[in-house]
Design goal:
Strand content of chain A: 15-25%
Strand content of chain B: 15-25%
Radius of gyration of chain B: 28 Å
Helix content of chain A: 25-40%
Largest interface: A-B, 42 and 39 residues
Helix content of chain B: 25-40%
Distance between the termini of chain B: 27 Å
CATH topology of the domain at 249-472 in chain A: Uridine Diphospho-n-acetylenolpyruvylglucosamine Reductase, domain 3
Distance between the termini of chain A: 61 Å
CATH topology of the largest domain in chain B: Aldehyde Oxidoreductase, domain 4
CATH architecture of the largest domain in chain B: 2-Layer Sandwich
Number of helices of chain A: 17
Oligomer: heterodimer
Strand order of the largest sheet of chain B: 3-7-1-14-11-12-13-21
């Protein structure tokens, strides 16, 4: 097997081949300390403040637009086969971009430390939409923190940009040529070994399964929006690291009969856009899931595979009867999500297997009552205390089918089948709701931690059910 | 001056050119510095073994308090140690300084330090500190009239307390310093600090140097908000210590996590009050006790307490007034300056009291505010005459222009309905005292260099942290010389150009430093005018033709 011992990407129009220790660095460190592009700032180092925002485009025919990502939690090897623009790369021949110019004219910078991140986040907005509203600006800026409290001037700067004058970011550099420069490496697996550490990126599922069989403890990287944080906190991700980004099938996002198939490398923003017309409730829910920067990197599969009992997408997937698709040395295998999650960070997953995708049925919007909730200390972009999904099919006030799932109420996210059975075939009445709530209270086993006490969590679970009932019956 | 000018760093901000401490290029031999700190809130250090840490190939040195010439500091009282000696008083208290050749070894390096601590019972709660009289500094009092007598004679009385929690500064650029050792035992320190002079002095004292051997340079800060008024200094000292010992440039850049653990925050307060008022809501007396959580050391907390006490009247005339303030000690990071510097604690307390009075009398709180607000030429409890008082007019204008009464009605209608949301409305005033309460600090100086092509460089003691003080100084100087603003550059703040400065704080940076720059500029303008007058009044044939002048 021919492999390469470097990753390849373009930064501000220059091709960079990165190997050895540099490939394992946070990408922000590579930019700042190795390449000398210090305009990109690092503050929280956990993907919350957005000071490290860069513009990213995957090397692929269908990835036409640059999107924003957090460079502090992106391990450098994940930037393989991509085009990156940092804040230094926006101005051409000393000519500022429209966003840069507007930020100056509208006093968008105070202490200036967050400014590069804001400039990049706004640049990604004009790249992806031309009709600008104040709400849209705010949505695109949820991943950027300004502590001088200069949000209004920044919003003013965004609103003042003449969108007609904004050139696509692809015009910044000669990407036709740059794309060709990357092409020769596109189908070559990567293996970078530094001491005990090894990064492997296969180009086929078989290679991946073989590697996982050999190294059962291999850590799979996708968007790295959680593991990237752990690494920055000094935790060791393990010796063997693997990414599936060179396997084209992993980007599948399609209908298959009445199901939707989401490949392991499909990020949440792509998914959100895909679902907008099809499952508006879920698409809307993804709004408060995370910032654009995170959603441009994080994947649905990653959210599940990370195994957190408060993963925000799991309750919905449980109520959508999701099926997890696996691949191992003996081929593919499908497992219902309810069976797949066995306990706290524990899955029905063999040593040589890994998740290749998730398929789920979208509930019929017209005959379903859907409630997706998340309770966190901050409304947006916070780790949940409790989350839940309610999907009810009703006819003539009668509940034909009830699906209830909660996250953050025990070692794993739960479907509440017993409660569902009690509700099905009945009409919703205060008495029935109260009976259901009693059952919910005895089924869930929340713990107390910094995000909420067990008592608080129990109460919230009942309140969320009550809210769903109030809003739908 | 009448024209709005863009931030002088606006362009560098948006292009990424603006240089902060950690953006400075590495110098040959430069080392990285990190701080090993206490994992417990209160304890006695039994032993400290750094040998395993030192054995790491990347680790060059580990320093403790024994390596400092002088270990005691404090902006007001010298009660704090740079590096813990035999006891620790908060989680995050620096114990040792590690110098290494690589940035990414500190997690491991710190984990190899063996520290034995005998844990002692900590005080972590303000109420516990109040109850056990665990105090910092003396009780302070401001009074006027006889509050006790007025309370006794009161028509109505209310008693209560208000708790105000702390707050993290979260300046985006965490504490950062680089120290460059220079020849002849000098140190040049670049710090993200609001107070270069204090950094210079503390570095010198800690290292056993004279002030003239240390230069502190501040280009800009990525936010400060008070958090870098006193607390930038220890980290500058740590970098300087390494630079002095190893004779290599040394860079300390805190991670946000360590910064949040190690540095102080806004002082939490717990304020108790008794207020007397008549049927109309007019306040006849206020008696209050303010307690603040100073954390483990005094830092600026006593001055912050004074400001809280001085703002307890806020916008209202209170004839009989007595406030006592006491800073309490807890085993938490020493709390420090933060936007408002105690002022908001006084203001929030009286505004909360006014809301309580309104609820008690079933009146609109705006009515209570209007009848209590300072009228022309009344004096504050601390004896300052309120001049140029526009408060009564402001209240009236706002009430009228906002259709306050209609809003109030709409809200009442809404709130009387049966649903799960409630609305509220309030108009509050703020009277805020800018400038330092320690009066001699309200002074500045400036250096204005006029170059031979007519362009001008200005230096002051002000530090730029996003507030735009540099561009304001440039505006003042440009106006003084009647030249375009582009002809003026405000230069990096440095103690070798402008020494003995006050911190850029107390909402005073622009007033003090613009005035200093103006004074300097006017002096030069007068000198130029004198020379110009002499030159221009010579006979024509003696004058040098402008064509022969080379600029």
């Amino acid at each position: 097997m021919k492999v390469r011992d470097y990753i390849v990407l373009t930064i501000n129009g220059n091709v960079h081949k990165i190997s050895g220790e540099q490939a394992f660095m946070p990408f922000s460190s590579l930019l700042r300390y190795e390449i000398g592009l210090t305009g990109t700032k690092v503050v929280c180092a956990e993907g919350d403040c957005g000071a490290c925002t860069i513009l990213y485009r995957r090397h692929s025919a269908d990835a036409d637009k640059f999107v924003s990502i957090n460079s502090c939690i992106s391990t450098s090897f994940l930037m393989d086969m991509s085009h990156v623009i940092s804040v230094e790369g926006l101005a051409k021949q000393n000519q500022l971009s429209e966003v840069q110019d507007s930020m100056i004219r509208n006093f968008g910078g105070q202490c200036g430390f967050c400014t590069p991140g804001f400039v990049m986040a706004l640049s990604s907005m004009y790249e992806n939409t031309k009709t600008i509203t104040e709400q849209k600006v705010k949505n695109y800026l949820t991943g950027n923190l300004c502590r001088c409290t200069g949000y209004q001037p920044i919003i003013n700067a965004a609103m003042a940009v003449d969108t007609k004058k904004v050139a696509p970011l692809k015009s910044c550099y000669n990407y036709e040529k740059l794309t060709k420069d990357l092409e020769s490496d596109q189908f070559v697996p990567i293996k970078i070994t530094v001491g005990e550490k090894e990064f492997f990126a296969p180009t086929t599922l078989a290679q991946a399964a073989e590697y996982k069989k050999k190294h059962p403890n291999v850590r799979l990287f996708s968007g790295a929006t959680d593991i990237g944080v752990q690494i920055n906190k000094g935790r060791n991700p393990g010796a063997n690291l693997m990414s599936l980004h060179l396997i084209p099938e992993m980007y599948a996002l399609k209908h298959d009969g009445d199901q939707i198939v989401v490949g392991a490398r499909v990020n949440l923003n792509t998914l959100q856009k895909f679902l907008e017309g099809k499952s508006p409730k879920f698409a809307e829910f993804l709004n408060i899931f995370a910032s654009p920067q995170i959603k441009n990197a994080a994947t649905l599969v990653g959210n599940l595979a990370n195994g957190s009992p408060i993963a925000d997408t799991t309750p919905y997937l449980l109520t959508a009867d999701a099926i997890v698709e696996l691949f191992g040395s003996s081929g593919t295998r499908s497992v219902a999500l309810t069976d797949f999650i066995k306990g706290y960070k524990s899955f029905d997953l063999k040593d040589d297997e890994f998740i290749t995708g998730i398929r789920f049925k979208i509930p019929n919007a017209s005959s379903s009552k859907i409630g997706l909730f998340k309770v966190s200390q901050r409304r947006d972009l916070d780790i949940s205390c409790v989350n839940s999904s309610f999907v009810f099919q009703t006819q003539n006030n009668k509940i034909e089918k009830a699906k209830i799932a909660y996250g953050g109420v025990g070692p794993k996210a739960l479907r509440l089948f017993d409660v569902e059975k009690v509700l099905e075939g009945q009409e919703m009445t205060p008495a029935l709701a109260s009976k259901a709530k009693q059952m919910i209270a005895t089924t869930i086993t929340p713990i107390s931690d910094m995000r909420g006490s067990a008592e608080f969590r129990s109460q919230i679970c009942l309140d969320l059910f009550e809210r769903f009932v109030q809003e739908n019956f | 001056m009448s024209k709005s000018a863009y931030h002088d760093s606006g362009r560098s901000y948006v292009t990424g050119d603006a240089e902060y401490i950690d953006d400075r290029p590495l110098v040959q031999g430069e080392v990285f510095v990190d701080v090993f700190y206490s994992p417990v809130a209160h304890g006695k250090i039994r032993s400290l073994d750094v040998s395993a840490c030192l054995a790491m190939p990347e680790v060059l040195a580990v320093y403790t308090h024994k390596d400092l010439k002088h270990n005691l500091w404090g902006s007001i009282f010298h009660d704090q140690v740079f590096l813990a000696e035999d006891r620790v008083q908060f989680v995050g208290e620096p114990i040792a300084v590690i110098a290494a050749t690589k940035r990414d070894v500190f997690h491991t390096a710190k984990s190899k330090i063996k520290l034995e601590i005998e844990e002692l019972e900590p005080t972590l709660d303000l109420q516990k500190a109040i109850d056990t009289k665990f105090f910092i500094g003396p009780l302070r009092t401001i009074q006027r009239g006889d509050a006790d007598a007025a309370l006794k004679a009161a028509v109505h009385k209310l008693k209560g307390d208000i708790e105000i929690a702390g707050q993290e500064h979260f300046y985006l650029e965490s504490q950062a310093s680089i120290a460059y050792p220079k020849e002849d035992d000098q140190i040049e320190i670049h710090s993200s600090s609001q107070h270069p002079t204090e950094v210079q002095h503390l570095v010198a004292e800690a290292l056993g140097l004279r002030h003239h051997q240390v230069v502190c340079v501040v280009k800009r800060m990525g936010g400060a908000f008070g958090g870098k008024e006193s607390q930038a200094a220890p980290f500058a000292v740590f970098a300087a210590l390494v630079a002095q010992k190893l004779k290599r440039p040394a860079r300390v850049i805190l991670t946000k996590d360590d910064d949040m653990i190690m540095t102080g925050k806004r002082n939490p307060f717990k304020n108790f009050f008794e207020v007397a008022f008549d049927n109309s809501g007019k306040i006849t007396a206020l008696k209050a006790e303010l307690f603040s959580d100073g954390g483990a050391y005094a830092d600026l907390s006593t001055a912050i307490m004074e400001r809280a006490m001085l703002h307890l009247d806020n916008a209202y005339f209170i004839p009989n007034f007595k406030v006592a303030g006491q800073v309490c000690k807890t085993h938490t990071p020493p709390n420090t300056a933060f936007r408002g510097f105690g002022g908001p604690k006084g203001v929030a307390t009286i505004e909360s009291i006014i809301e309580d009075i309104a609820v008690f009398l079933k009146k609109d709180s705006l009515e209570i505010r209007k009848i209590n607000t300072y009228q022309k030429d009344q004096t504050t409890p601390y004896g300052q005459k309120i001049e140029d008082n526009v408060l009564p007019q402001l209240f009236a204008d706002i009430e009228k222009q906002t259709q306050y009464k209609q809003w109030r009605k709409d809200i009442e209608t809404h709130n009387s309905g049966n649903h799960s949301t409630y609305r509220g409305l309030s108009v509050t005033a703020v009277k805020f005292g800018i400038s330092f309460t320690t009066r001699f600090l309200n002074q500045g100086s400036a250096l204005v260099n006029v170059h031979m092509d007519g362009s001008i460089q200005v230096s002051t003691g002000a530090t730029e942290m996003g507030q735009g003080v540099n561009i304001k100084i440039a505006q003042v100087v440009a106006e003084c010389f009647s030249i375009p603003i582009d002809d003026v550059k405000v230069m990096t703040t440095s103690t070798e150009k402008i020494p003995n400065t006050s911190a850029t704080a107390a909402s005073s940076g622009s007033d003090i430093n613009c005035q200093a720059a103006l004074t300097a500029a006017q002096t030069i303008r007068e000198r130029i005018a004198k020379v110009a007058k002499a030159v221009l009044s010579r006979p024509k044939e003696w004058r040098i033709s402008p064509k022969r002048m080379a600029w």
